[in-house]
Specification:
With 397 residues, the chain is of the alpha/beta class. The chain has 14 helices and 17 strands. It has 2 domains: 173 residues, 3-Layer(aba) Sandwich (Rossmann fold), CATH 3.40.50.1950; 190 residues, Rossmann fold, CATH 3.40.50.10300. Helix 1 runs parallel beside helix 3, helix 1 packs across helix 9 and helix 4 packs across helix 6. The longest helix has 16 residues.
């Protein structure tokens, strides 16, 4: 998504500008070409040489520098995205008034690129009617805004907005802003993730090794591509992806009900979860102590969630299934593709090192309804999520 993209990072003078260093690093590591434009006051908090070291490119801090008078126009009109973090109350006011009295505001006024602001200021300053009017003015002009959040400010803790969003959060919103016009923009997407747990008694459960990492990465990437995403998650310890609505469930029956409720309005269903295939036939009401001797369980199959969606799918929607197998994986996956009327099935081997459960990487094979086969090599699960959604966008066409 970021490879080869030109991003201008604007930095104005606030204590939160130290976070901009982390943001510059994240953007550069993601493959973007990052040019930094700073206000004079920003350079009092972080020296330009810091950003030059992080990005490998010169910093623009004055219209009077060599090429500065032309750089603000060139950068403003050639950038794929302009990201201002932090955006102080003063900078926001100057933008709203259309002032161009330094390199950064001149660049912003000359820009034809999309702009994303990350406000950061004292909570009283942010709540002030004039600041709110200035932000409303900028929104009306098509400028996007992320944050601010609550939390510690330079002057102490606060339970009101003012703190700049974290760099990873800003990066996620920047990715979504950059993705406008993609196939998934505005689509309603449901992703299931993680295991389910079936009770043996009030303490013990039957479950599996799924961590939910693949499903969470798919939900994250789908949101960044512009989709409205609902993540239906079984028990997992992962942080919810930025922007994604999360509904938590415990059992396979609860996951089935959550999917059924969302299905009539869903354009894309991605069943990345690993719901339990079996559950205790007669869960006990009390825990049996070890001293009582051996414990025998009679297991019964749970309902097949994907199969249960056949009659309720929204016309024209697309459904992606997963097939985690331990042998003859592709043959079984093709059977699943046909029997459950899927558009795409994601196949992987649970016994392959570095793939499957409880790891950060995956290697999958994608089989679509037209008989096409695509191999995705072993890599980070976020990269695998991009590969899967590339295929989904191709099918949605």
């Amino acid at each position: 998504m970021w490879s080869g993209r030109h991003v201008v990072l604007g930095v104005s003078g606030g204590i939160a500008s130290y976070k901009s260093c982390f943001l510059a690093r994240l953007l550069t590591e993601a493959g973007a070409r990052v040019d930094v434009a700073m206000t004079r006051s920003a350079a009092e908090f972080v020296r330009p040489v810091t950003f030059e070291a992080l990005t490998g490119r010169p910093v623009l801090s004055s219209l009077w520098e060599k090429d500065g008078a032309l750089a603000h126009v060139r950068w403003g009109q050639q950038a794929d995205l302009i990201l201002v973090a932090p955006a102080t109350a003063q900078l926001i006011a100057r933008m709203a008034q259309g002032l161009a009295d330094d390199a950064l505001t001149a660049l912003l006024l000359a820009s034809t690129a999309p702009i994303l602001l990350a406000p950061a200021m004292n909570d009283e300053m942010y709540a002030h009617p004039q600041t709110q009017a200035n932000l409303a003015c900028l929104r009306e002009r098509g400028i996007s805004i992320v944050g601010p959040e609550t939390g510690a400010l330079a002057e102490g803790p606060s339970d009101r907005p003012g703190r700049m969003s974290e760099p990873a959060t800003i990066l996620a919103h920047a990715s979504r802003r950059l993705a406008r016009g993609r196939v998934l923009e505005g689509r309603r997407v449901v992703v299931t993730a993680g295991p389910t747990r079936e009770p043996i008694d009030p303490v013990r459960v039957v479950t599996n090794r799924s961590s939910g990492k693949m499903g969470y990465r798919l939900a994250e990437v789908a949101w960044q591509r512009g989709a409205d995403v609902l993540l239906i998650s079984g028990p997992a310890t992962l942080e919810p992806p930025v922007g994604v609505r999360v509904e938590r469930v415990e059992t396979t029956a609860e996951m089935e009900q959550a999917v059924a409720t969302a299905l009539p309005h869903t354009d894309l269903l991605v069943m990345a979860a690993a719901p339990a295939d079996f559950r205790p036939a007669s869960p006990r009401r009390a825990k049996q102590p070890r001293s009582a001797g051996s414990l025998s369980l009679a297991l019964e199959p749970t309902r097949d969630i994907l199969q249960a969606t056949l009659e309720a799918r929204k016309p024209g929607s697309l459904v992606v299934g997963f097939a985690l197998e331990t042998g003859d994986a592709e043959s079984r996956a093709r059977t699943k593709l046909e029997r459950k009327q899927l558009d795409l099935v994601v196949v992987n081997d649970a016994l392959e090192p570095g793939a499957g459960f409880e790891v950060d990487t995956n290697r999958v094979t994608l089989l679509d309804r037209f008989g096409e086969r695509t191999v995705v090599p072993l890599q980070d699960k976020r990269a695998v999520a991009h590969a899967i959604l590339d295929e989904v966008e191709r099918l949605l066409g």
